[in-house]
Amino acid sequence: MKKTGLFFGTFNPIHIGHLILANHMAEFTDLDQVWFVVTPKSPFKAKQTLLANTHRYQMVYEAIREYPKMSLTDIEFHLPQPNYTIDTLTRLQEQYGKEHRFALIMGEDNLKGFHKWKNYEAILEYYPLYVYPRLSKGTIPPALREHPGIHRVDAPVMEISATFIREQHGAGKNIRPLLPEGVWRYMDEMNFYR
Ligand SMILES: Nc1ncnc2c1ncn2[C@@H]1O[C@H](COP(=O)(O)OP(=O)(O)OP(=O)(O)O)[C@@H](O)[C@H]1O
Ligand SMILES: O=C(O)c1ccc[n+]([C@@H]2O[C@H](COP(=O)([O-])O)[C@@H](O)[C@H]2O)c1
């Protein structure tokens, strides 16, 4: 049984903040590996300049190709939108539950609004949450603060955002160090976010 942490996101594009975090989870917790779940449509996210699913998937592939403990899945491409995490977890459990024990990787910012997620109680009951620190407003609801299924992970805080990368790249600034090399190359060749 492999303990597999799931890192959900739109990854538009994936950047070194995501990668450092995923690596921290794979190397410094009891998780054996991390799977990136590329989301077509996050429930609360306003419509933004979202690249096609396949391009965002390809960029995650480029970012993790030399990291044996990381993998990615397009499972949400085949599920109804917006993509509710509980539905994806159920599907993953059906398909891979015999070989994998799944956990959810989440930033502290998302934990603050977690009580608004679809069937969040069910998520908490069946899947451990690995929560990393992030600078953000708001507070963690008291019921979640001491919940036994929530594990705090002391990962480094990196305030890099995909929105900033898209905007500044579009404005002609050099954001290259914020992207894994393969992601930068793909984005540049494909003329994304220009
Ligand atoms: N610098 C970062 N460090 C750690 N976690 C991050 C960082 N940036 C985003 N995340 C988290 O990673 C997950 C996937 O991020 P996602 O691509 O969906 O959003 P984002 O990077 O915040 O992009 P956008 O700016 O387009 O909203 C989210 O849960 C988000 O909170
Ligand atoms: O299931 C839900 O109700 C739900 C609500 C908000 C967000 N999510 C998941 O959390 C991931 C990160 O969300 P976001 O909006 O911070 O990018 C996103 O990719 C979704 O998979 C899930």
TrEMBL record:
Domain of life: Bacteria
EC number assigned by the record: 2.7.7.18
Class of enzymatic activity (EC top level): transferase
Residues covered by the Cytidyltransferase-like domain: 6-167
GO molecular function: nucleotidyltransferase activity
Transmembrane regions: none
Pathway: Cofactor biosynthesis; NAD(+) biosynthesis; deamido-NAD(+) from nicotinate D-ribonucleotide: step 1/1
Keyword terms of this UniProt record: ATP-binding, NAD, Nucleotide-binding, Nucleotidyltransferase, Pyridine nucleotide biosynthesis, Transferase
UniProt-listed CDD domains: NMNAT (cd02165)
Gene3D superfamilies in UniProt: HUPs
Catalytic activity line of the entry: nicotinate beta-D-ribonucleotide + ATP + H(+) = deamido-NAD(+) + diphosphate
One Pfam family matching this protein: CTP_transf_like
HAMAP family per UniProt: NaMN_adenylyltr
Function summary: Catalyzes the reversible adenylation of nicotinate mononucleotide (NaMN) to nicotinic acid adenine dinucleotide (NaAD).
Protein family: Belongs to the NadD family.
Protein name: Probable nicotinate-nucleotide adenylyltransferase
Gene name for this UniProt entry: nadD
